[in-house]
Write a structure and sequence with these properties.
Low-confidence stretches: none
Structural class: alpha+beta
Radius of gyration: 23 Å
Strand content: 5-15%
Mean pLDDT: 95
Shape: globular
Number of helices: 21
Helix content: 40-55%
Strand order of the largest sheet: 2-1-7-6-8
Length: 495
């Protein structure tokens, strides 16, 4: 990944600066409005002032640190820590992360390190100034029929893809068994652009490999080259690598590291389906959750979103850390963010888009693949986003809107199935995977028993038992990934 970095410190006379004084990451697409489309961040140091700006969604993960006449900006939190950023943990931010699995707003694990907000304009000349535009949101749609909405979706998506026509004939399409990548592939082919290859990652168990089965059917249908990327390393090694590579900001993505490495070595243009699901056919949008967002208080909504991990946290965290990252604190922090989404036509989609999609999902196409020259995100086209976020939520609640859009646009291929997400891998594979993972984490904790974040009374006796029992080791899967994360975070916070 591209760990771009710049650091500057104010001296008695002038400044001491190092790193990339001029940096442009991602891609911009010119629009008639003068406001560029695309996903990007850029900064410039002219010797006296640092200025930075990013896209309207803040999808490119970049972090900054500003304190006591010192400023640093980077796509990697480790780079900021290495440059001397304060490693003090943000226990309020962590209280939510421990329970949700992603950070909200501009939070990071560290109190003095922040994510660059959406549509931000930042300047620093010894003092920090940060401006941000109002959160992008489409105007509510009024009176449009469902059929008309399907046609508008297709028309706007085609325009988006035209604006993102591949500049390199040897472009790649990561292909799953779902809707977003299929929609991208079908439209590329309709416009006469045949990908150099499609790529599908195999999963770690217990998740099955429906993605590969369905993607193979699609590529065979069109005679496309299809590379299926297997997991060649252990789950432990992938998880241990993923945490620092994603700046300690997610509990997901370890399964995709092998594929990211393959893409970075071979492809210059890639299409990613980020946000297609959350904007048009989200699994998070259920009748129960919509009713919660429409009728409950922000406090009640936050409580429902968070109260599912207490056993793991109360056992694994040190008593002091558990008190300092309490459920009550997490609810209080999260309800402030929830409140900002309640006036949206689709408040559930808005919350998950601006938090999970922006702060967690984007860590793959614009974090792990940050040094791929161009990663297009067609569903984040400004016109398409504005249209989809203005749709009445009633059109989306039955989870068929995106499926019907694709079927209407490409009827000859409407019979091709989608993945069955309920299918899981065989349990013996699951047991072996997690037995190995548990043993590796146990060895790590026993060799470094000084972690300030992990409750040793809980973890160390279990780590000893794990070394002598594969069955017991496999049973630790409910807490061992968090134990690894906490140990790595503890090391990072000691810098």
């Amino acid at each position: 990944m591209n760990e771009s970095f710049f650091h500057v410190k104010r001296l008695t006379k002038g400044f001491d600066a190092r790193g990339k004084a001029h940096c442009a990451l991602g891609h911009q697409i010119a629009r008639e409005s003068g406001n560029p489309d695309g996903i990007y961040v850029e900064w410039n140091w002219d010797g006296k002032c640092l200025t930075a700006r990013n896209d309207r969604y803040g999808m490119f993960p970049v972090f900054y640190y500003s304190r006591d006449g010192e400023f640093a900006i980077s796509s990697s939190i480790d780079q900021l820590l290495n440059a001397g950023a304060s490693p003090e943990l943000d226990e309020t931010a962590l209280s939510v992360f421990f329970r949700l699995g992603f950070f909200i707003g501009e939070d990071t694990p560290f109190r003095h390190i922040r994510a660059l907000p959406p549509a931000a304009t930042l300047s620093w000349d010894g003092e920090l100034r940060l401006e941000r535009a109002t959160r992008a949101r489409g105007a509510p749609s009024r009176g449009e029929s469902r059929t008309s909405a399907l046609d508008t979706y297709n028309e706007l998506f085609r325009c988006s893809m035209t604006r993102r026509a591949p500049s390199d004939a040897n472009f790649a399409v990561p292909l799953s068994g779902g809707r977003d990548s299929r929609h991208i592939l079908f439209e590329l082919l309709r416009q006469g652009h045949k990908p150099g290859r499609c790529i599908t990652a195999l999963h770690f168990p217990p998740r099955g490999n429906e993605d590969a089965r369905i993607a193979t059917m699609l590529t065979q249908e069109f005679g496309l080259k299809h590379d299926i990327i297997a997991q060649s390393g252990s789950f432990y090694k992938a998880e241990a690598a993923k945490n620092p590579l994603t700046s300690y900001c997610t509990d997901e993505h370890s399964w995709y590291l092998e594929t990211v490495s393959n893409i970075r070595q071979r492809d210059r243009v890639v299409y990613d389906g980020i946000a297609g699901d959350v904007l048009s056919q989200s699994v998070f949008l259920t009748e129960e959750r919509l009713r919660l967002f429409q009728t409950a208080t922000p406090n009640e909504i936050a409580t429902q979103l968070l109260s599912k991990a207490e056993r793991k946290l109360s056992n694994l965290l040190t008593p002091q850390l558990y008190r300092n990252t309490s459920l009550e604190l997490a609810i209080s922090h999260l309800e402030k963010e929830v409140k900002t989404h309640l006036d949206s036509p689709n408040p559930v989609g808005s919350f998950f888009f601006w938090n999970r999609t922006r702060r967690e999902i984007a860590l793959v196409p614009y974090g792990l693949m940050g040094d791929v020259p161009t990663v297009y995100a067609p569903f984040l086209d400004h016109d398409l986003y504005d249209f989809l976020t203005g749709l009445p939520v009633e059109m989306l609640i039955d989870h068929t809107f995106h499926t019907d859009t694709i079927s209407r646009a490409y009827p000859a291929h409407a019979g091709l199935p989608y993945e069955d997400k309920g299918k899981r891998a065989d349990s013996p594979d699951f047991m072996r995977l997690h037995a190995d993972f548990g043993k590796q984490v146990a060895k790590r904790l026993l060799l470094r028993p000084t972690s300030r974040l992990i409750n040793k009374r809980f973890a160390l006796p279990r780590a000893m038992r794990t070394l002598f029992s594969s069955a017991f080791s496999a049973s630790t899967h409910w807490y061992s990934p968090l134990a690894l994360y906490l140990d790595q975070l503890d090391i990072a916070s000691r810098r």
